[in-house]
Amino acid sequence: MARKEYSFYPGCSSERNASASNYMVSVQSMCKTLDIKLNEIPDWNCCGASIGYADGGELPRHVMNARNIALSQKHNPGQDIVATCAACWLGTKESVERLSKSEQLLADTQNILADAGLKVDINKNTASGVRHMVEVLIEDFGYDELAAPVKKPLEGLKIAGYVGCQTNRPFGIDGESFENPKYLDKMVEVMGAEPADKYEQKVTCCGGALAFSEPEKSQAQIKEIVESAYDHNADMIVTPCPVCQMNVEVYQEQINKTYNKNFNMPVVYYSQLMAVAYGSSAKEAGLDGQIIRSKKLEEIAEAK
Amino acid sequence: MNQTTSVSDPSPVEKYRNNFLKEVEANVEEGDWVKMCMQCGVCSGSCPLGSAWAHPPQELFMMIRAGQREEVLRSESMWMCTSCYSCVVRCPRELPIMHIMHGLANYANRLGLAPKMNPTKRFAKLFWDNIAATGRVNESRLSIKLYFMNGLVSGIKTAFAMRKVGLGMLKTHRLNLIGFFRAGGIKEKNQLQQMLNKAYEIEDKRKGLS
């Protein structure tokens, strides 16, 4: 039996050939080392993300999330739902909160779920049972236990912990401050690297979905996020969020043109740092999925 | 005088004539918080795109109280929200500001008052249609539709400008053009669509929109 077992909500971006497929690869490697078993929710659907508000309204969005929760309760009873994507985690948890506050929303939702032979149980413990992977690592394992399997400390690397928005606000991780969360820095330290502890852009918004619709405004934000990492002499940025990862990595070349910069800053996931520190190969850590490759991290991964 | 009450399904305009605040309280997500705003402006100062808002949130709240229905619902301002939750966690009176902004944008959209060419409104529709079709995001369809949102010529220009980003995503297997032709998504697509259709129907009925 695995050490820990969860009902897993991987989310759209983690699918094969999707924008965070490399995140998923590294999560699988990390979980193998930590002996975490992830039981995927059968036939899970999209959470609606934040941008779903405009056409999804309230009830349709909550119905989407309630369907996932109902499927999880039916097929993986008693297990916490764990999401690796910030939006999936937030969307699911937020729907639980809303449904528990409004009898009408809950009744409407149950009525709709019933047509599909489903029923959702929303009780006082449901919200706390919807968790982000980082929460699981910090709260169920703790820094000491995360440090134990480290085979290759990431010595000599300086890393800027970019927490972003939705893994941080409004729920937060481990009760940390919204304005100066420190868990990413602690994780960087535990993996043997040096955190950029005064990285002032750690909770700046990357623009989220507006990177697509308002690219100039979003790229102005991303410029600050990357530039500050350079100012702190960081070798790379680390993040827990698939949207942050993509936005901060892929637009650097366009930002270079607009602002006459020379950015080439790798942006990796916490799980990629952990997989490498735990002895995975670059491929097992999903490092071949980075558009801006992190040579220093790849070198550590490939060293015997 | 008040004939609207006798109509079984009065439109929101009739039902809340001259009282936009009541209309917002009844029909906009978290709209019953509007009166709690104390006009401090912490939300505007916290917003990453603050300078792009013609009317920052506290101003929209005041405009709602002043009954400026058209100006509020036709505004581009709420569409500048990046969903970063900064205003939500910083508001001293704990207004869920972001959700009220989303609610206003959604309500304006459903009434057909939202600015037609607003890029975020248009992207949001592409996104929702994309997930409602198969139950999951099909990223290749979404990005191609986004590029070609303004027609073929503009789409080719966008695709050209974005070619390095796209090629980078393709090379690292984070984007797959086959996905454009293969729907993917969940098994119970029809079931989910029926559920969503029923949800729209119930919500519209509750808000007097149909």
Can you describe this structure?
The complex is a heterodimer of chains A (304) and B (210). Chain A is of the alpha/beta class and 304 residues long. Chain A has 2 domains: 4-133, Glutathione S-transferase Yfyf (Class Pi), Chain A, domain 2 (Up-down Bundle), CATH 1.20.1050.140; 151-302, Rossmann fold. Chain A is built from 14 helices and 8 strands. Chain A has helices at residues 21-34, 53-56, 59-75, 86-101, 103-115, 133-141, 143-147, 183-190, 210-213, 215-231, 242-250, 252-259, 270-277, 295-302, and strands spanning 4-9, 36-40, 81-83, 130-132, 158-161, 194-195, 236-239, 267-269. In chain A, the strands form 2 sheets. In chain A, strands 2-1-3-4 form a 4-stranded parallel β-sheet. Chain A starts with a strand and ends with a helix. Chain B is mostly helical and 210 residues long. Chain B folds into 2 domains: 3-115, Alpha-helical ferredoxin (Fumarate Reductase Iron-sulfur Protein, Chain B, domain 2, Orthogonal Bundle), CATH 1.10.1060; 119-203, no CATH class. Chain B has 13 helices and no strands. Chain B has helices at residues 12-15, 20-27, 42-46, 57-65, 69-73, 86-90, 97-110, 119-134, 139-147, 152-161, 163-171, 178-181, 189-206. Chain B is globular. Chain B starts with 11 loop residues before the first helix and ends with a helix. Mean pLDDT of chain B is 91; it is low at 1-7. The interface between A and B is large, with 63 and 62 residues.
Number of helices of chain B: 13
Tally of strands of chain B: 0
What's the Cα radius of gyration of chain B?
A: 20 Å
Oligomer kind: heterodimer
CATH class of the largest domain in chain B: Mainly Alpha
Determine the structural class of chain A based on helices, strands and strand pairing.
alpha/beta
* Overall mean confidence score, pLDDT of chain A: 97
Just name the CATH architecture of the largest domain in chain B.
Answer: Orthogonal Bundle
Helix content of chain A: 40-55%
Main beta sheet of chain A, described? 4 strands, parallel
Low-confidence regions of chain B: 1-7
What is the third-level CATH name, the topology of the largest domain in chain A?
Rossmann fold
Number of strands of chain A: 8
Largest pleated sheet of chain B:
none
> What is the distance, rounded to the nearest whole angstrom, between the alpha carbons of the first and last residues of chain B?
25 Å
- Estimate what percentage of residues of chain A fall within beta strands: 5-15%
Inertia-based shape of chain A = globular
Overall structural domain count of chain B: 2
Q: Tell me the fraction of residues in β-strands of chain B, as a range.
A: under 5%
